[in-house]
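Field reference: sequence -> structure
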Amino acid sequence: MPGLTKQHTLTGLLLLSLTVAGCNRQPAADVVATVNGKPIAKSDLEKYYKGQLGDQQQTPSQEQADSMRLNVLRSLIDEEILQQRAAKMNLTATNEEVDAKVAEMKAPVTEEQFNQHLKDSGLTLDDLKRDVRRSLTTEKLLNKEINSRINVTDGDVSSYYNQHKNEYNLIETQYHLAQIIVTSQPAQQPQQISNLQASKANNDGEAQKKIQALKNRLDSGEDFGTLAMNFSESPQTAPNGGDMGFFSESQLRSDTELFNSISKLKPGQVTAVIPVPEGPGSKRAVGYAIFKLVSREPAGQRSLNDPAVQQAIRQQLKDGRSQLLKNAYFEMLRDEAKVKNYFAETVFKNEAK
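Structure field:
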């Protein structure tokens, strides 16, 4: 049957040529990577790269820019791997869940302020909803695959305490503080405004009026954390409701006025308005602050029977196990995924000449 053999041979050669052509096919100009065949657009890479640059004044060199883009793209690839895994498990966030989260984000501000936030961030409402969907989806996936597998027993807590008992012997009193701070310097860029209301004093007069208005609202019974998130101008603490963490008594004593104000408080109480000096020994104020004493932990050995000690240990053990499982889980998913990083190939070819 020579005719049949020839036909099969021609068919095989045709299929082989098509396969080779498919393997050598170049990606579209706007595609920087693919994950299991799904493209990641260059426009997305550039958007998140610019977001990472923020208000950086100095333009990075080409090498620095490409290095940053490689890191951003790695994150986008990892995120896409997680999204695809969640989709297979029917864990993708629903439209209702996304809309509820967006409504929660809009609640503390007016519609105009919310739209201004989007504009300042370079996002559209659709961009925000996409980011929210991805965030909620990742959260659902990790809750099912990671957090549901973590069990910290009373025995684990007790064992950890006995092995680290010295860590719970406080040499001196510790103060857990929160703050609301207002500064008199105007923001150079809108992105520098870190509170939910995009509220910023632009001079000393505005700063004094703003901090006094906030003190009046606190005296009227409004929640400290909510006011801090909405109006405090500290990028480090405003997102956390003003929480500053713990300070030792010796640290506080280095600022006599601050220590005198805080040492008189009971947990839950707040200070009067305190000027923030320009520097050590300076009498010039560059802002104003109100501090809240969240708790005071006396010096001495803290017992395992202390609920706060148990909670702290349990959370620490849970966080440690969660991070370990996430690292292993991410590596497993990367091993299973078929990833093509065209941008990395381009960088290597250009730089290895």
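Note: The longest strand covers residues 285-297.
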